[in-house]
């Protein structure tokens, strides 16, 4: 048991952070892709259709009829969600502004948990754990954050 613990303690933070960044980015990116037309990029399945993204009509309908966030009009909420689900995952994947991007997605996760899918805590708890880990520890050495700020 002691050997197993020692082996586990040698798992590098950078490996955990890279896996976490890739995994949580995929969750939000794929969700964002359901809200737009004209741009279809899925590196896992090898799908690349480049074009100018446009908010889909179904995204606005989703926010109007199913999500119904308080205080935010559905048209605005759909644009905000689609934008956030494309920008922040890319930032995380690159390890650029990692702590900020993780915080933004953590806030988004909280909004989803509280107002949209309150029974999905097991899923959102896992997302929150990964995002909080990235906020606390950063992106690791395989990141633009490390490359840009290692000299300071």
Set down the secondary structure blueprint.
Elements: H1 2-9, H2 13-33, E1 36-37, E2 40-42, E3 47-49, E4 54-55, H3 57-67, H4 74-94, H5 98-116, H6 121-137, H7 144-149
Antiparallel strand pairs: 1-4, 2-3
Helix pairs in contact: 2-4, 2-6, 3-4, 4-5, 5-6
Brief descriptors of the model:
mainly alpha; two-stranded antiparallel sheet; transmembrane helix; cell membrane; transmembrane
Radius of gyration: 17 Å
| 3D shape | globular
Number of domain units: 1
The helix/strand series, from N terminus to C terminus, equals HHEEEEHHHHH
* SSE class: mainly alpha
In the predicted model, the low-confidence regions spanning at least 5 consecutive residues are: none
Number of strands: 4
**Head-to-tail CA distance between termini:** 40 Å
Q: Which percent range describes the beta-strand content?
A: 5-15%
DSSP summary: helix tally? 7
Mean pLDDT: 94
Instruction: Give the strand order of the largest sheet, numbering strands 1, 2, ... along the chain.
Output: 1-4
Characterize the largest beta sheet: strand count, sense, and whether it forms a barrel. 2 strands, antiparallel
Helix content: 55-70%
What report would you give on this structure?
The protein has helices spanning 2-9, 13-33, 57-67, 74-94, 98-116, 121-137, 144-149; strands spanning 36-37, 40-42, 47-49, 54-55. It is mainly alpha-helical and 152 residues long. The protein has one domain (23-149). The strands form 2 sheets. The protein has a two-stranded antiparallel sheet with strand order 1-4. The chain has a two-stranded antiparallel sheet with strand order 2-3. It is globular and about 55 Å long.
């Amino acid at each position: 048991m002691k050997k197993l613990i020692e082996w586990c303690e040698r798992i590098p933070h950078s490996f955990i952070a890279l896996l976490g960044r890739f995994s949580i980015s995929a969750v939000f990116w794929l969700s964002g892709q359901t809200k737009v037309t004209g741009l279809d990029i899925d590196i896992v399945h090898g799908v690349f259709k480049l074009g100018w993204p446009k908010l889909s009509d179904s995204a606005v309908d989703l926010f109007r009829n199913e999500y119904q966030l308080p205080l935010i009009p559905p048209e605005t909420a759909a644009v905000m969600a689609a934008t956030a689900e494309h920008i922040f995952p890319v930032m995380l994947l690159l390890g650029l502004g990692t702590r900020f991007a993780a915080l933004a997605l953590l806030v988004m996760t909280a909004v989803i948990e509280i107002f949209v899918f309150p029974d999905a805590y097991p899923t959102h708890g896992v997302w929150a754990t990964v995002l909080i880990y990235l906020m606390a520890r950063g992106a690791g050495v395989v990141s633009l954050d490390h490359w840009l700020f290692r000299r300071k």
